[in-house]
Design goal:
Length: 297
């Protein structure tokens, strides 16, 4: 037996057709028409299937506790997809199809890029992509050598910001061909809205067309906060790469009055927009965090 076992997923549904159509549209899977019945639907997936049971099926399966809402049958299906781009796309589509986002895309400690989403009945399900796969797709979650070079540069610039009496943050915008359009250090001690990313976006936008910015990448020594993510979104910049994650930054700043860090990933902000933004990070976290040693406490 062993490797000969094929696993399929079956979900209990209060509203069979609504939940079935949600997963069919989100995952772009074909119905297994031969399986259709008044109380059951099925979708064909790679080497397996996803089944959907109507409330009447509960009687047949003697899963009464599920229908009554008490502890009993539960599910947490995981759908493995082919690229990081697919994770971001599914995260955007789930709310539009009547579902929701429980946890926006993030990189796990076991090297997957994943999101935890909700279907129309508020059931959890996970979509993930293994970053150890040789191909990551158009999302380019595996950084290029140029990405790492630029991040080393902005981390060095963040140290220069600290040495100059500013907060230890920096950002840079480059064109599609790698040409540097702008760079900036943090100036929030003078104006609390003058984060490095905002300043770099403003400088780049003054000298670039919308088409230029669509192909541009913003590099930051730390993950853009909600304000900076908003500036990136409205500028039309198409790609972001960052070093230190917002979560890691929060661990460093703690309850500092000078930098009351928001625990809000930039991917969560971008996911609420109407255009995709490619995001890569966190990267070089130890190098980026070293610049903050002893600064906030």
């Amino acid at each position: 037996m062993g490797s000969d076992i094929r696993v399929s997923v079956n979900l209990f549904c209060h509203e069979l057709d609504r939940v079935f159509e949600f997963y069919r549209a989100l995952l772009q899977l074909e119905e297994m028409a031969s399986k259709r019945s008044p109380i059951y639907r099925a979708l064909a997936a790679s080497n397996t299937s996803i089944g959907f049971h109507a409330p009447a099926a509960v009687e047949l399966l003697q899963a009464q506790r599920w229908r009554d809402g008490s502890p009993g049958a539960a599910h947490y299906p995981t759908f493995h997809v082919a690229s990081g781009e697919a994770i971001d796309r599914l995260t955007l589509q789930a709310p539009a199809l009547g579902g929701g986002i429980h946890k926006p895309p993030y990189v796990t400690y076991y090297d997957t890029y994943q999101a935890v989403l909700l279907d129309p009945e508020q059931n959890f399900f996970r979509v993930d992509f293994d970053l150890r796969e040789p191909a990551i797709g158009t999302m380019a979650l595996d950084p290029t050598p140029a990405d790492l070079d630029r991040l080393h540069e902005v981390i060095a610039l963040s140290r220069a910001s600290r040495d100059g009496g500013r907060h230890p943050f920096a950002a840079m915008v480059t064109a599609r061909d790698g040409t540097r359009l702008a760079q900036a250090m943090n100036a929030s001690t003078l104006d609390p809205t003058c984060h490095a990313e905002v300043e770099a976006v403003r400088l780049a936008a003054r000298q670039s067309t919308r088409d230029d910015l669509a192909g541009a990448t913003l590099y930051s020594s730390a993950e853009p906060c909600a304000m900076c993510a908003g500036a990136i979104y409205w500028s039309g910049i198409g790609r972001v790469a960052y070093a230190l994650s917002e979560e890691s930054l929060l661990d460093l700043t703690g309850a500092s009055d000078e930098n009351p860090t928001l625990s809000l990933p930039c991917r969560d902000v971008f996911a609420r927009g109407q255009r995709p933004i490619e995001v890569i990070g966190p990267l070089l976290q130890a190098e980026a965090a070293a610049v903050h040693d002893g600064f906030w406490r």
